[in-house]
Design goal:
Blueprint: E1 2-6, H1 10-22, E2 25-29, H2 33-40, H3 51-60, E3 64-67, E4 79-82, H4 99-108, E5 116-120, H5 128-139, E6 145-149, H6 159-164, E7 169-172, H7 176-185, H8 187-190, E8 196-199, H9 201-232, H10 236-244, H11 265-278, H12 284-307, E9 316-320, H13 336-345, E10 349-353, H14 358-364, E11 370-371, H15 375-379, E12 384-387, H16 399-405, E13 410-413, H17 420-425, E14 429-431
Parallel strand pairs: 1-2, 1-4, 2-3, 4-5, 5-6, 7-8, 9-10, 9-12, 10-11, 12-13, 13-14
The chain binds uridine-5'-diphosphate-xylopyranose (UDX).
Uridine-5'-diphosphate-xylopyranose (UDX) binds near residues 154, 156, 219 and 325.
Length: about 425
């Protein structure tokens, strides 16, 4: 199968590379020449475990190509995936900005030859695929193509595994021919008995938002329950385990923390709220989850303040982890972007470490943060350690050493990585989230 992938952002690059790994002939297209040049040299613009090797191997074996020129890839393609960015619109109203999608549709339309399936891979509001279809038909009335929607459910840091072993593949199609083409593309997965859910196009588009909104609700739910646990003296970790054993609830995504971040949940929850508003409807539960998430970050600031005796002014805070989750350098909507400025504003001094995210963090956080090369360096002379992101290298810290380095042995564990009892044994004044 010959595949063109428009957009070499996170989704496009991972998806294109994995399709090449399946054995398809894939050309990834991007407007940014430096990005394409780098990719041709095997340099990967994002940090995603395993992706670099997979890109290099598939390129070397001649199945993965990179170009800035659509004309080099679209005419020969059986399937054209659109995976360009859909950032939250600059208008600040939560809408997804579809400029790049529509521009891609206009540009690819005259290049279509023979029968092609055009598939929307980007997360887009319901109705966008129809709009793309209309643009292509208007631009090139001769084009012989079908439109489809194929949302992705990749987690950053685990994207390759999620792609190769998905819980399901969702394809929104309207013609048997397009469905056949997509089934063919995903055939290596069917051999592993991966379920394929074939739906209408609008259903596929909405499925993506519903899945992310549900997960965001689940996280906000457990974060809210964590707050209640702290008040009544209960333990949210035990509670989550107990409710999670109920098969109807499930144990995943019940880990309390400083609030969800990343490229999907914050953007997609807002976009869903805007989409339904256009139809004069509401998604009250999702709106509440968004509100709880903002409150959770503010609650973390108060938690740190309390642990510092009521004021962070003049105190040195060691922050371990800046990215929104481990195994990524992505800082988009990371809780650290809200929590750290709030602490700085009140006169705290911050020494921060992150295994991958410091370069990106420096662009987004206030200048007065000091970046250091290890957790221990961050802890030197600190009044407290805040474990913000649960990177593996923070999971087995040398606690004796850490304790010895700090001015005050206060440990604030926003990911509940450590056992309270053990921390007390090491002499720390310790708090987690939802554990009195
Ligand atoms: C998510 C979805 O999981 C994925 O299917 C979708 O395609 C894109 O959005 P991602 O944003 O990469 O993926 O990360 P994920 O692992 O889902 O975590 C998102 C955020 O929720 C992180 O900030 C994480 O720390 C937080 N989280 C997750 C919790 O606070 N508690 C949990 O139990 C799970």
């Amino acid at each position: 199968m010959n595949i063109a992938m428009i957009g070499t952002g996170y989704v496009g690059l991972v998806t294109g590379t994995c399709f090449a790994e399946f054995g398809h002939d894939v050309t990834c297209i991007d407007k940014v020449a430096e990005k394409i040049d780098a990719l041709k040299n095997g340099e990967i613009p994002i940090y995603e475990p395993g992706l670099d090797v997979m890109v290099q191997q598939n390129a070397a074996e001649g199945r993965l190509h990179f170009t800035t020129d659509m004309a080099q890839a679209i005419p020969a393609a059986d399937a054209v995936f659109i995976a360009v960015g859909t950032p939250t619109s600059r208008r600040g109203d939560g809408y997804a900005d579809l400029t790049y999608i529509y521009a891609a549709a206009k540009e690819l339309a005259p290049l279509l030859q023979d029968y092609t399936v055009v598939i929307d891979k980007s997360t887009v509001p319901v109705g966008t695929a129809r709009q793309v279809e209309r643009i292509i038909r208007e631009t090139n009335p001769e084009a012989n193509f079908d439109m489809a929607s194929n949302p992705e459910f990749l987690r950053e840091g685990a994207a390759i595994n999620d792609f190769m072993r998905p819980d399901r593949v969702v394809i929104g199609v309207e013609s048997p021919r397009a469905e056949q083409m997509l089934r063919e593309i995903y055939k290596p997965l069917f051999r592993r008995d991966t379920p394929i859910v074939s739906t209408g196009i609008e259903t596929a588009e909405l499925t993506k938002y519903a899945a992310n909104a549900f997960l965001a609700v689940k996280i906000s739910f457990i974060n809210e329950i964590a707050g209640i646990c702290e008040v009544v003296g209960a333990n949210v970790v035990d509670l989550a385990k107990a409710i999670g054993m109920d098969g109807r609830i499930g144990s995943k995504f019940l880990h309390p923390g400083p609030g969800y971040g990343g490229s999907c949940f914050p953007k997609d929850t807002l976009a869903l709220m805007r989409i339904v508003q256009e139809y004069g409807e509401n998604v009250h539960i999702v709106a509440a989850a968004v509100e709880v998430n903002a409150a959770q970050k503010a609650r973390m600031v108060r938690k740190i303040r309390d642990m510092l005796g009521g004021s962070e002014t003049g105190k040195t805070i060691a922050v371990l982890g800046l990215t929104f989750k481990p195994e990524t350098d992505d800082m988009r909507d990371a809780p650290s972007l809200t929590i750290l400025p709030a602490l700085l504003e009140k006169g705290a001094l911050i020494r921060a470490h992150d295994p991958q995210g410091m370069e990106e963090a420096q662009k987004l956080l206030p200048d007065d943060i000091q970046y250091v090369s290890s957790a221990y360096e961050a802890a030197e002379g600190a009044d407290c350690v805040v474990l913000m992101t649960e990177w593996n290298q923070y999971r087995a810290l040398d606690l004796e050493r850490l304790h010895g380095l700090m001015r005050q042995p206060v440990f604030i564990d926003l990911r509940n990585v450590y056992e309270p009892e053990m921390m007390r044994r090491y002499g720390f004044s310790y708090t987690g989230v939802g554990r009195k």
